[in-house]
Amino acid sequence: MITNIPFGEKHSRLSIFEPNEGTLVVIPSLSLPQDELRRITGARCYEERLLFLLMALRRPALRLVYLTSAPVDPAIVDYYLSFLDDPREARGRLEMIHLGGRPTGPLTEEILRDPGMIARIRRAVRDTEDAWLVPFVVSEAEERLSSLLGLPVYGPATALAHLGSKSGGRLVAEDAKVPLARGFADLRSLTEVEHAARVLGEGRLMIKLNNSYSGLGNAVVVKDDRPLTACHTSFSASDENWTTFAEKIAERGAVIEEFVEGRPLYSPSALARITPGGAYDVVATHDQVLGGANGDVYQGCTFPARPEYREAVGECAERIAAVLSGRGVVGVFGMDFFAVKTDGGYRALLCEINLRIGGTTHPFGAALLTTGAVYDPGSGTLKCGEQSKYYVATDNCAADCLRGRTPGEVVEMVRAAGLGFDRDSLTGNVLHLLGAVPEYGKLGFTSIGDSAEEAADLHRRTLRALCPGS
């Protein structure tokens, strides 16, 4: 069995947001269900979402090795280094390594098949006692690479991966005494799902595949007295049907829950980290921006979550982090909730746990590293001295007029419109997914302001500038 190589005492409190020294080997491989990734426009470019870590090179004793499937446009690298005081000096501590083509599988699996790449990474890591892998998600492939390189992984061991499945999340919530929607877990066939649906009764039900990405493994069924396959069903993925979905239930397992119908109903999330030494904390809460057929596909986020339920979400997230820390989980991870209004205020219900770097990680990291802010648990905001910082982020700014442009042209377009990042006021936009611009006309950005209103207004103006008519 492959197990994670342990961290030394020196890095027992390591956080990827605040590394002071050593070498980060960033491997943003999308080691996730490939059928779902194919539904995301420009999915391969999502390997660039961790490029915000280049801004961690402001620490002079830090080196960074960044691995990708295809070359990253030098203008994109220059863009991230431009946030630093001395980009040229920082560039000397950065090594970008790529496969050079269009691989057919996840990045890590392709690297494992290429002895030359393994050798090159070994050469790039000068001090293996002070280097570690930072993966987007940990699969057996990342653990094999860890073993070959002799580097510890900043992420949960695959032996703990079940804790981040939909079924595992329900078990963790029960241990943490965090509320859940009524439902059943560990269902391994359509027949088992059918039996559970009968117990839950008629009405809207949510079925979720154990391991899915960005809400694309969900289905909403309006249950009546007929079999599920005869009931009105809305799959979050447009090309899904009961035949393909039943196959995935048998392959991955699933949960079924009552559809949460509260009005108003919000979908906040929390971001937490657990250090190699077991220390844990909640570093952010967000309100998710959701879309798709069932309103459950991640599109972006706002920081922080609404004050009406921010504290309740944070408290539930902290209890979950405590349970996961006790089980040996390490790394950054997200938790999605429903916030339901009750007579006594808002109640947070756990929706799922994502034991990996997720959609809110890069906006938070970008805001943290550009402003130098510190998360204040009391207010639930990022603080620069007495000034709180707020942001709105998207992964889905797309327009035909952007297709064919270069990343450098888009960066200049944003700057010329007065929408770039201002290092004096510590407000403005941080762009990402720039590599998707030429082929797909798509990018993402995080709009940072000194108030929620300022951040939202900047975000709207940027959308209008980049995506006319949006």
Quick overview of this protein structure:
The protein is α+β, with helices and mostly antiparallel strands.
List keywords for this structure.
3 domains, five-stranded antiparallel beta sheet, 470 residues, alpha+beta, eleven-stranded antiparallel beta sheet, single chain, 14 helices, D-amino Acid Aminotransferase, Chain A, domain 1, 29% strand, globular
Topology, please?
Blueprint: E1 21-27, H1 34-37, E2 61-68, H2 74-81, H3 87-91, E3 94-98, H4 107-112, H5 115-124, E4 131-135, H6 140-149, H7 166-176, E5 183-187, H8 190-200, E6 203-209, E7 218-223, E8 232-235, H9 242-252, E9 254-258, E10 265-266, E11 268-274, E12 280-291, E13 297-303, H10 307-326, E14 331-342, E15 345-354, H11 361-371, E16 374-376, E17 381-384, E18 387-398, H12 407-416, E19 428-432, H13 437-440, E20 442-449, H14 452-466
Parallel strand pairs: 1-2, 1-4, 2-3
Antiparallel strand pairs: 5-9, 6-7, 6-9, 7-8, 10-14, 11-12, 11-14, 12-13, 13-18, 14-15, 16-17, 17-18, 18-20, 19-20
